[in-house]
């Protein structure tokens, strides 16, 4: 939920929690995009006027990370025009403020039930689709045959976790667990117990013993993603595990042995973090015995087409054949810079597959923000007419064409409805 009004935001968050949902609240456009990059939500609600941007800014910047997540905008009457443009560009709908929270909850529930019925499962994809990636696959296979720690670097979404899984699957440890940990996502106070586990009664609230990531990974692979965000205190403890192969669960008197392998990954500049003393040099040297750099998608554009076809196939549900790409959309895919890399490509195609109106995807199905540029601007009067016409059409659809009912819903007379509909069409 993106809402800068603290009173309204607080009330909605509280209500959504009571409904058993887990809202993440961002108060600015920047916070919203940072939250989206961390994890893809099932539903997104955004205000249209934010301290650092508009609804259109949110919509544009969210595209690489949004996947098939529906986005609903909340708008005051004065910005209905923008809300309509957003719906035309691909937002799910808009609510006019002040809105009824029951209606919001109802919409979220409806949307979630549709989504859970159609979510697909993900399998281990084929790894290398270009000469650049074939060379990387070769490096990973060579690393897999050794016991050395591996550091994977590259921009967000380039496939570092996929590479770590490939390494694990190619190693003699393939039959043992692969445990992936996002080092930046663990609350500070839980770090030790999450990594090393704890004994029953180790601290207030520790009613049961807890198995930490090291024990869970056993003699398999522990993948430490976003290693640059690891708390400095834990960096010291991790260094000790790497040096001695042993660790101690919280509240335990005995050390345990770690027989697994560590693969770490980061999209941050560890050199910079080291210079700022936020990442230990000694830990860096330990982790980066083998360092493999994954190139961004814009440097291996030959993968875009085969990956797209794969993602479209994955997104096709039931007996429906996979959607196809028009010539223009393929060109647009090849031209785009892909700041979110393969994750962005997957997200965009997944979203386009859900919302596509035909079997062939056009460029603006994949890049809906293009529609914001092409929707004509015109005068304020034109904009108001378009917004009105859109609202009238939607009321007519909702009332299955019953004009009287639509007019009542809109709070206008039947004659006014006909007149305004006529005006917007002329
Ligand atoms: N070679 C590939 N084939 C198919 N899908 C891929 C490939 N590489 C990455 N992906 C997909 O792209 C998305 C991002 O991949 P992954 O999580 O491995 O990236 P990452 O570099 O670890 O990202 P982050 O830095 O954000 O942790 C995932 O959905 C993954 O399945």
Task: Give a quick rundown of the structure.
Residues 126-354 form the Sigma-54 factor interaction domain. The chain has 20 helices and 14 strands.
Descriptive report:
It is built from 20 helices and 14 strands. Helix 4 (80-89) links the parallel strand 4 and strand 5 (93-96). Helix 4 packs across helix 18 (380-398), helix 6 crosses helix 7 and helix 18 (380-398) packs across helix 20 (414-425). Strands 7-8-11-6-12 form a five-stranded parallel sheet. Strands 1-4-5 form a three-stranded parallel sheet, covered by helices on one side. It has a two-stranded antiparallel ribbon with strand order 2-3. The chain is globular, with a radius of gyration of 25 Å. The chain has three domains: 1-118, 3-Layer(aba) Sandwich (Rossmann fold), CATH 3.40.50; 131-297, Rossmann fold, CATH 3.40.50.300; 300-373, Orthogonal Bundle (Helicase, Ruva Protein, domain 3), CATH 1.10.8. By secondary structure, it is α/β, with parallel strands linked by helices. It binds adenosine-5'-triphosphate (ATP). Adenosine-5'-triphosphate (ATP) binds next to helix 7 and helix 15. The site of adenosine-5'-triphosphate has 17 residues, from helix 7 and helix 15.
